[in-house]
Automatic annotation (TrEMBL):
Keywords tagged on the record: Signal
Classification via InterPro entries: Channel_Tsx-like_sf
Official protein name in the record: Outer membrane beta-barrel porin/alpha-amylase
The organism's taxonomic lineage, starting at the top: Bacteria, Pseudomonadati, Pseudomonadota, Betaproteobacteria, Burkholderiales
Signal peptide: 1-26
């Protein structure tokens, strides 16, 4: 059997798709331009902007493997006018106790169930021709996924004294066709078109010694929805990484990459809520660092968050609620190669504070 393909947690989609992890307004009116990664509170900095014009003012910025940062493309067609710049910066926290990673096992050989505490810093905003979103996640695993210690007589790292830590960043910049050409390009159920480019960089101190470097590029469609937003990007993703177990640099083939993100604000009685999330599908990308042919992977993360700040007189500043992450064929690893460790199905607690 191949050596452990120890954890290299990127989102979803750290991942801005994400996951992108961002929030948006959950009031009675539509979002003021909506965001591990990727789900954001997108409040324009100019409070004089009419609600309709500030509703949907940014380009789709979607996910990643560990967090989501997303934003809508353009204002509604009937109110098209270039809005002022806006920015939303926030810190987030999520925790789950049921993560699994390829090749990470207990001493008995059973799949290791990993607890992770994840902190994040996200900034997202709009500019004249589109929007941007940048996110950094800091992930701390329990001892079930240990940091790398000294190497043994065979040259393989031994478990360290603590859980592994990972730093993962995701960035997206999207250009809105309606903004670039200065007129509404909506058509039927499509609100706008765009073009998205981004990166994902990560490093981790476990045995795998991840050094992930990814680029994403593709067109985006934003659909017309009454509140919030929903967009889809279809493009290509390139990836290179380091495999510390076999000590090789891996350059994967470019892969087809499909991602979608959404955010829907609503009320349940007196409680303002936001339902947000992303889904990501990445095709086979050639052989990994163990010489195994990769397969299609699927990642989704959703959350239902309450605007708890509104109960203290500070709406759209503090959110808390539940989340759920599902990751199938993690990193493209076939289940047949690492049985029981290539799929995560994990409920989470999620909280965010917006500045």
């Amino acid at each position: 059997m191949k050596k452990s393909n120890a954890v290299r947690v990127p989102l979803l989609g750290i991942a801005l798709f994400g996951c992108l992890s961002g929030l948006a307004h959950a009031g009675d009116t539509p979002l003021a331009a909506g965001g591990d990664a990727q789900p954001l509170q997108l409040a324009p900095t100019d409070s004089t902007v009419p609600a309709a014009a500030s509703d949907l003012t940014a380009a789709p910025v979607t996910l990643s493997q560990t967090s989501t940062v997303t934003a809508p493309l353009s204002p509604p067609p009937q109110q098209f006018a270039t809005p002022p710049s806006w920015n939303d910066t926030y810190i987030g926290y999520r925790v789950g106790t049921n993560f699994y990673y390829p090749g990470v096992r207990t001493q008995s050989g059973a799949p290791a169930k990993v607890t992770q505490n994840i902190g994040s810093v996200t900034t997202t905003g709009g500019f004249r021709y589109g929007s941007y979103a940048f996110n950094v996640d800091y992930l701390v695993s329990s001892m079930a996924n240990p940091e790398a210690g000294p190497t043994n007589q065979y040259g393989y790292p031994t478990p360290g004294s603590g859980g592994a830590q990972e730093l993962y960043s995701v960035g997206r910049v999207s250009f809105s066709a309606s903004k670039v050409f200065g007129r509404s390009l909506s058509w039927g159920f499509i609100r706008d078109f765009g073009l998205t480019a981004g990166y994902e960089f990560g490093t981790k101190n476990d045995a795998y010694a991840e050094r992930a470097r990814m680029l994403v590029f593709g067109p985006t469609i934003e659909f017309s929805v009454p509140h919030g937003f929903w967009n889809v990007t279809l493009g290509v993703r390139t990836e290179s990484n380091h495999n510390g177990i076999t000590n090789v640099e891996v350059h994967f083939n470019p892969a087809v990459h499909l991602e979608s993100s959404w955010l829907y604000p609503f009320r349940l009685g007196p409680v303002p809520l936001v339902f947000k999330g992303f889904a990501s599908l990445t095709g086979p990308k050639g052989k990994d660092g163990f010489g195994v042919n990769t397969t299609t992977e699927f990642l989704t993360r959703v959350s239902l968050l309450a605007d708890v700040g509104s109960f203290a007189g500070h709406p759209r500043t503090a959110y808390a609620g539940i989340g759920y992450e599902y990751w199938h064929n993690m990193y493209g690893t076939p289940a047949s190669e690492q049985p029981g460790t290539t799929q995560t199905s994990c409920p989470m607690f999620v909280a965010e504070i917006h500045f």
